[in-house]
Amino acid sequence: MSKTEIIQAVIYFISWCASTAIYTLSIKKWEKHCNNWAGQHSHWISVNEKLPENDGGFSDMVLVYTKDKCYYTAQFNYISNCWFAECSDDEITHWMNLPKPPTQ
Question: Pairing between strand 92-97 and 71-77?
Answer without folding.
Answer: unpaired
